[in-house]
Design goal:
Elements lengths: L1 H26 L3 H27 L3 H30 L15
């Protein structure tokens, strides 16, 4: 009973976090802030989903596989976001700057 409630809490929280990340990607003004919204929510959203599924599976081979998937996503998702941002910067895409702070740098 407690495991089911905790599992569903993780699954619903992961889903809500995914929706918040999608809203952030839609609302933020430039590529880099949109990438930040996607990159940060993506890792935590996947972690919550996998934790919820692991709690549903119990202590089994399936939960071990879910843990390995989490480790893979934990390292590759931030690395991919960094690589995409770096490629965009080297491709000439400039970050959006505020009009008041252009002369400060």
């Amino acid at each position: 009973m407690i495991t089911d409630v905790l599992s569903w809490f993780c699954l619903v929280s992961g889903g809500l976090l995914g929706v918040v990340g999608g809203i952030g990607m839609h609302r933020f003004p430039d590529f880099y802030s949109r990438l930040h919204a996607a990159g940060t929510t993506d890792t935590l959203c996947a972690a919550l989903f996998l934790l919820g599924l692991g709690l549903q599976a119990g202590l089994s081979l399936a939960s071990a596989k879910l843990a390995l998937i989490f480790v893979f996503l934990f390292f590759t998702s931030p690395t991919a976001s960094h690589s995409v941002a770096n490629a965009a910067l080297h491709g000439g895409l400039k970050p959006l700057q505020d009009e008041h702070n252009k002369g400060d740098a």
